[in-house]
Every structure is written in structure tokens, then in C-alpha cells.
Design goal:
three-stranded mixed sheet, alpha+beta, 2 domains, 13-stranded mixed sheet, 29% strand, 299 residues, 9 helices, binds zinc ion, Carbonic Anhydrase II
Length: 299
């Protein structure tokens, strides 16, 4: 057992270093990236029969952020060059959906069908600000207990993170940035609420995060100040809705997207503070294909 245990630790450590050298996967830091996200815990268990006891011992080697699902084992990907979005599907077999998927995100939000849909009920409360820089985005892992309800279905808020420029576009136009509030239901199905951020007045709700933006790749760290996701939302909460995917590898589909029609603002200084750390991390828009894009026309 001792030998096995040591090997397990080495394997976990090796995986933790990863090909990318970074905890990857932003939206993927949430649940559906099970294959990738949980690999560090499962992969060492090449002796599955012994797994129950030993992986527990191995866990301290993996970071807390990794335990949250920041897949260190996710292969390297980037936003330009040979590992850029056009090549994601070829980078790893687990990324195949990035190329072969037919319901991918983001998309251009245009020609939506207006309908009176059930509103999203937000049940957000403040959370400790547990922030990390995974090399692809800056993310805050959210305390349990905050959730949305849509048509009586509950999705718990798991984490939020940012893209700049925005990933979704409206009539072909990107916003300065985009916030993704990533939720999962009991069956680990994802619902992401997107909020476009355009340059304007400073956004004070961002302060707990922006005051502690990690300049380097770093594991989850509590900054000791609460953040309130409710304060990120625009006053009018009508949304575009469609069925899509993670916008980062492995581009897993089956994600319910809700993108706020009304943007909020951040200041030029706030935008600059983010983009000085994270270079353009927006996946290009994907074809809508046979999907329907709905617009909830009633607040
Ligand atoms: Zn995202």
C-alpha cells in the first residue's frame, strides 16, 4: 500500500502540473468537464480497487481549486495560434466536440424570436471571494446556497468569471467584456447567465474581485471580502435564451444559456486592469444552426 500510495501522489502531482502548466477550463471549471476536471483525482487510481482510501491521501497534493474542478489535466489550449479556437477540436480527443459539435457557444444574438417566457428567479446571496487565475480567465468560486430557478428548476451558482472582449455579440458587435455566472443543477446540467459589460461608469460591484485580481496564474485564494453576484445583474432582467455549450474546451454541449439583453458597465480603468492580465479570451461566435434563439420579451 505504501508503494501504491507514493505512486499515487507522484501521479497526482504530475497531473497537477499538467501540459498547460495551469489549471484550465473556465466554464469547464464547472461540472460538465467531469472527464477533465476530475481526472487528477481519478487518473491515479489505475488500481481502481484501492482507490477509495488512497485518493483521499493524494488529494492534498492537488490544489483546492483543482478539487473544484479546475482541470489541471486539461491539455493546453489558447486563443490564438496553433492552439487557438480553430484548432481546439484537434488538440485532444476530449476536445472533439469543439469541432464536431452543432450546438456550440458563443453565438451572435440576432434575429431572436420574442416570447413571453418564465422569468429567471434569482436567489443570490453574498459569498466569500475565492478568486483564482487559471491562465484563461479570472474566476471566483461561489459559496453554496445561491441559485436561480427557471420554470421551477433549480440551478446552483458554482462560479463566475470574465471574458474580454465579450463572447456573445449582438448584431455582430461585441461588448467590452462579458460575465459568466455558471450554475449547475442536481444532475450537473449547466445553466450560464451571461451579462455583457460595456465601457462606462465604474462598476462598484466588481470591487471585491477587481481589488484582488491575481496577476499570475494562481490557485483559489480567499481575499477576505464578500462579493455579491446579485449586484452584477442589470435592473431589467430580460434575456436571450438558447441551447449551447461551454465556450472553452472540452466545449461540452447541453448548456442552457441566458444572456441578459441589458448590459451593465465597467470603467476603462477596470477593463484595462483585466486585459493587462488576461489577453483576449473570447471564443469566436459559432453557427446557430438548427437551434432557436429566444428572447424573453417581458421583464
Ligand atoms: Zn465563460
Amino acid at each position: 500500500m505504501r508503494t501504491r500510495s507514493t505512486l499515487t501522489l507522484i501521479a497526482a502531482a504530475a497531473l497537477a502540473l499538467g501540459a498547460c502548466g495551469a489549471p484550465a477550463a473556465e466554464d469547464a471549471a464547472a461540472p460538465p468537464a467531469d472527464q477533465a476536471a476530475e481526472a487528477p483525482a481519478e487518473a491515479p487510481a489505475e488500481a481502481p480497487a484501492e482507490a477509495p482510501a488512497e485518493p483521499t491521501a493524494a488529494m492534498p497534493e492537488a490544489t483546492a481549486a483543482e478539487a473544484e474542478g479546475d482541470a489541471h489535466a486539461t491539455p493546453h489550449f489558447a486563443y490564438e495560434g496553433e492552439a487557438g479556437p480553430e484548432h481546439w477540436g484537434e488538440l485532444d480527443t476530449t476536445f472533439a466536440t469543439c469541432a464536431s459539435g452543432t450546438e456550440q457557444s458563443p453565438i451572435d444574438l440576432t434575429q431572436a424570436t420574442s416570447e413571453d417566457l418564465a422569468n429567471i428567479a434569482f436567489h443570490y446571496q453574498p459569498s466569500d471571494t475565492r478568486i483564482l487565475n487559471n491562465g484563461h480567465t479570472i474566476q471566483v468560486n461561489y459559496d453554496a446556497g445561491s441559485y436561480i430557478e427557471v420554470d421551477g428548476h433549480r440551478y446552483d451558482l458554482d462560479q463566475f468569471h470574465f471574458h474580454a472582449p465579450s463572447e456573445h455579440t449582438i448584431g455582430g458587435q461585441p461588448a467590452a467584456a462579458e460575465l459568466h455566472l455558471v450554475h449547475k443543477d442536481a444532475a450537473k446540467k449547466l445553466a450560464v447567465v451571461g451579462v455583457l459589460l460595456e465601457e462606462g461608469e465604474a462598476n462598484t460591484a466588481l470591487a471585491p474581485v477587481w481589488d484582488h485580481l491575481p496577476a499570475e496564474e494562481s490557485p483559489e485564494t480567499s481575499v477576505g471580502v464578500d462579493v455579491d453576484a446579485a449586484a452584477f445583474l442589470p435592473a431589467e432582467q430580460t434575456t436571450y435564451r438558447y441551447r449551447g455549450s461551454l465556450t472553452t474546451p472540452p466545449c461540452t454541449e447541453g448548456v442552457s444559456w441566458f444572456v441578459m439583453t441589458t448590459p451593465v458597465t465597467l470603467s476603462a480603468e477596470q477593463l484595462e486592469a483585466f486585459t493587462a492580465i488576461i489577453e483576449a479570451n473570447n471564443r469566436p461566435v459559432q453557427p446557430l444552426g438548427a437551434r432557436e434563439l429566444d428572447l424573453d420579451s417581458t421583464p
